[in-house]
Design brief:
With 464 residues, the protein is of the alpha+beta class. Helices cover 38% and strands 20% of the residues.
Length: 464
Amino acid sequence: MDTPTSGPGSVVLRDRYRPTELIARGGMSSVYRAHDEFLDRDVAVKIFQAISPEQIEVGKHELTVLASLSHHGLITLLDAGVDQSEPDDPHIFLVMELVESSTLAQRIADGPLSSRDAGYIGYDIAEGLEYVHQRGIVHRDIKPANILLADYSDQTVRPRARLTDFGIAAFEAAQTPNPPGRTVGTAGYLSPEQARGAVLTSATDTYSLGLVLLEALTGCMAFEGDVKTVVGERTRRDPVIPETLNQRWRVLLSGMTAQNPADRPPMRDVILALRRIIVDDFGKHRAEETANTVDESARLDAVRRYNVLDMPPDGAFDRVTALAARIFRVPVAIVSIVDENRIFFASHHGIDLDQIDRNPGLCASVILDDEPWIVTNARTDPRALANPLVAGEFGLQFYAGVPLRTRDGHALGTLCVMDFEPREVTAEELESLEDLAALVMSELEIRLAAVRARDASQSAAPLG
């Protein structure tokens, strides 16, 4: 266990945590997988190896910082203590949640990330940093090795990033300039003001995150070399941002890595910019996937054939939306028809709108996917987080929609439910929504059959 006592497994910390496997080693501490024998679960234990007063204070400082934080983008502190199995050689230890993951550094070693994956990772870390900055804390050591990519085995391809290692984090108001020649942080990711030893603000984390995202996209560090070389370079030039990156990335990264901290965007603006990048990339990806699977011309012909655009309020459909709202216990339910440039609401329970433009409508996404769309928390779902209905005054947080599919396989629109609070969907609820959508389509099929019968009767009637 890198202590003077013995190896992993032979010491039980606080009669509860048994280290079993070394995960990572740093200059002042080691991180182990350990078994919590009280709750029968695995955790991560960070043990500070040295016993100098300065290093003991580092451990206590990280404990103080972590204990004040709770956010989905940060590693959670579970417990802490002092290992006194050797009374003359105590070791501070921190017990944290164990995230089954690789680091971003390991992922970059395999090659550059896609724009979308880099956007996801940046978004998670930026949200975590905004949270700590609002509490007056500056991380001061943003680098790929301190970003964990969690695998929750949820069958999604979206990487989930968690920020760790607050060992040199500081409260912004309590900082003082460093002595000449001394820097705080990791050389390759220092901001210019870190390189100069100046007092740091939250803008230093913005700069470091910009370098991390640039490295993720290119596979190469922007600044390499020994500490003296890298520090000198940092104050003389900006990182090279390749022209091959798309315009949104170039603008964002240039702003994040501006020499003057005051010229860098606040973390809230970084989050919004990353949202836009994610949504743009997701839209391009979906368009590529669906280009050969959805025949939009034939689908629009079906919309015209069923003659449901601009129809007057309909009691049958209103009963369906009212029932859907009751089943889901939500305020809004809609029968929508997706036209070429707009979404018409054939029935709208809980809102006073007849139609919206097609572009912001989530119903149009259901049509592209041609399958149910469930967004349990729109503010964290990259498919929806930049949608005007989510980010704007409407405040949409939850969406569940299923296609209104014709007998020949065309999706006319959706039956959807919405809420202004996040929520989950059970399999039974989704099945009920699909059953109600089938009722809507059954009514439309009956009406279409009646129109066809009437037209046939009229054409067969004798003249004169």
